[in-house]
Structures are given as structure tokens and as C-alpha cells.
Amino acid sequence: MQIKSNYPLKNITTLQIGGLAKKFVSINSVDELKEAVQYANTNNLNHLVIGGGSNLLVSDDGVDMLIIKNEIGGIASQGLTLQVKSGTILQDLVNYSISHGLSGLQKLTGIPGTLGGAVYGNAGAYGQTISDHITEVVFYDGQHIATLSKDQCGFNYRDSGFKRNHNIILEVTFQLEKADSDILAKETAEILSKRLVKYPKGIKCPGSFFKNIVTDTLPQEILQKIPKEAVVYGKLPAGYLLESVGAKGQQLDGIEIAPYHANLFVNKGSGSATAFYDLAKKYADLVKQKFGILLEPEVQLINLPKI
């Protein structure tokens, strides 16, 4: 394990944005994780565990902490059950499930990052979420390793209890369903072709920036302003709201809101976290003014104020 100083976080984020981490380390085992956490505690540093860096907006000023990049990977299977280490690349897990004829993860194809990050944010796509088939999660709280059942994880739409308790996800157990690999592969190929239209290869974008809104949480007077056809899978897309206030195609200092999707904020090559944040906040404020809806980032903001 090698701890580095003043590490440029833009090197490991999909956005290629982010200042320096005071300390940075990649870990490949639970023992190294424990050692890294102990190092942070001994040196009075806060620490943050990250996965693939695909869902992060890191301040240009960097962070005065130890960033721990989780690269603990591995998949073990027994029948319909998979036990997966949290640093496993999510796409590798999806591919594994398809090749072994296991249904329940195939719609997550094309989502970047690691399993740990996906579970942390309860990632999903096309009506399927990572938590649908989870049975338990093993975690490290900084002192002890323990296990939570699915019901104890606090999963909700794009949310989990791990966002609040800061326990470090180590391993996830899935109970999947038997299916035909060829059928799963065909379904995955169709989904991936759709995603590539939205997210072309090489795009510097963290995915949808704002969470969609669960319509059951909205007051009736707000819902009356929304066309029924705008609701998808019981969610009101943030992109619809942002488009309604003119966000599509807007730019600020190297950051662009995609002209084809108002909830995709893209670094065109020279953008900063400040420009990204300011552009997102501007249109979130306009949505609040017009609809009375407060948009919540799906992307994790590091050393930046709430939007």
C-alpha cells in the first residue's frame, strides 16, 4: 500500500475535474483498507472511500483528507447466489451474470463505476435497481466487520443508509433468477445501444446529475402542473423539469448541458467544478421557482456546498 501526497483527483474522475487530495491511496484488500483507515485516524485526517470516480464532482480546491480508492474485486458464485467484492467493476458483474444465465442485473449494463458505488447510491436504469436482488451487505465501520440484511440497508430511490452512516461496503450478496444467457445478452445489447446514444464513449459526464422525483412524494397541486405522459416508471424526470426552464444546450466556461438531454452536464475539456456547480445550481433554482420542486443531486458533491 502506497500513500501518495497532493494527488490530482481529476486523474480518477469520469469528469476529469477535481483538485488535489492531501493524501491518496488505492487498496486491494480488507487488511489494506483497515491500514488506510488507521493511518487517517493516526494523522487526524478525515477519509473518504471511492470506487470508480464516475459519480463525483470534486471541488477545484481539492480535499484536506485521505481518499481511499477501493479496488477490492472478486466474484464467487453458488447456484443462483453471487457474493461480490465491492471494488468489482459493475460492468464486470453484469457480464458475469449474463454469461452464467442469471437475471436481475442485466439492465444495469453500461453504468460506470464499481459495485460499492452502485450500492451506495442504489443505482438503477430502465426500471431495475442494484438493490432489487440484494440479500445482504458486509461492511466495515472503522472498527468491526458486520453484516446487514437488505431491509437494514435503508434502500430507497437512488439512496441507501450508507450515505448517512458512512459504513464502508465490503461485499454484497445477490440472489438472482435463472434465465437464458442469449436472451439476457440480447436485452443487454438493446439497452447498451440506447445508452450509447445518450452517453457516447469518452464523454466526460457523471450520468444524470439530478435525481428524478418519485411522484408519490409530490403534492397534488404540483402534480397537476405535470403532463401524465412526462412520468416514467413512477418518476418525474429531472430532465423534463430542466428542459422546461431552458437548460438544454446551455454552457458555462467549458461545461455544457447536453443539447439532447437537459439532465446531462458535460465537461467539454476545460471545465471546472465551479462552473459545473454554478450551471447546475442556476437551473435547479429556476426549476424551484417554476415548479416548487427542489432538485437533489444524484452525483456526490465533494467539498462543495449543497445545491
From TrEMBL:
Cited InterPro entries: FAD-bd_PCMH, FAD-bd_PCMH-like_sf, FAD-bd_PCMH_sub1, FAD-bd_PCMH_sub2, MurB, MurB_C, MurB_C_sf, Oxid_FAD_bind_N
Name of the gene this protein is made from: murB
NCBIfam families: murB
GO BP terms: cell division; cell wall organization; peptidoglycan biosynthetic process; regulation of cell shape
Major localization class: cytoplasm
Name of the protein in its database record: UDP-N-acetylenolpyruvoylglucosamine reductase
PROSITE patterns, sorted: FAD_PCMH
Annotated EC: 1.3.1.98
